[in-house]
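Hi all, long-time lurker, first post. I run a small reading group and we've been trying to get comfortable going from sequence to structure in the token notation. Rather than ask abstract questions, I figured I'd post a concrete chain and ask someone more experienced to write out its structure so we can walk through it together at our next meeting. Sequence below, copied exactly:
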Amino acid sequence: MSTSFIYDTPQLAATYERVSAHQQFADGKQLISALEISRGQHVLDIGAGTGRLAAYVARLVGPSGWVVGIDPLPHRIEIARSRATSNFQPRVGRAEDLSEFPDASFDTVYLNSVFHWIKSKARALAEILRVLKADGRLGFSCQDADHPHEALHFLQCAVTEAGVESDLYAPGLSRPELEALVTRAGFVGYKHELRTFVSFYPDADALLASISSSSFGNFLVNVSEGGRARLRDALDRLLEPRRIAREGIRLERYVAFAMARRPIKD
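-- Answer (accepted) --
Happy to help. Here is the structure in token form:
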């Protein structure tokens, strides 16, 4: 998928905040727990979106700590600013260019459901290594190439049945690819774990809204209204066997969690 940020809108940002951010927030809290972020730390959240997780981390580090949340999407940062506090600053920025931050600025840098979207991953990792303090921690969660989300399977089937052309999502990375990227960048102590999550959607429209807002409007951007209607009808039919009474459509997600450290001595 050739990802562009130009399709994001205030409406998509608001939809993301309403239907998708809570899911990534729940995943992100597991990442934060694994990183053992503590009071007084300086933390950088790359791809902070609407700032829900960064605001949570700001409470963990307390008034003596400091959290910066960056995201390339201004509409999402605008929502994040409603969560800003004395120790949480949301701002527009990209992983590939952290030049506004001095060397060794942060104890922890994390990317929650973001790394697979970054075009120049090697450049981003080099920048993260630079801004981390010695023995500082990097943590990220991302899609796993060998275990795609169940939703993507149903979406691909619906796209084919509806006769439309659409990029579905940013590709995931395999475990060997991730480890090679991180270790080549100079990090040590690489750890990796695949975790399974379950999501429930009331209907096909809710899933499509979640995918569209999470992909910044790239999904279905070139599909006509008629094509979208056919896709929605096909998806609704394909998903119906996965419906559980009172809970909705049950789909599993498979998320890779990875952590590493900047060496004490480079």
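A couple of things your group might point at:
Residues 10-35 form the longest helix (26 residues).
The beta strands are 42-46, 66-71, 88-92, 106-112, 132-143, 188-201, 243-244, 248-261.
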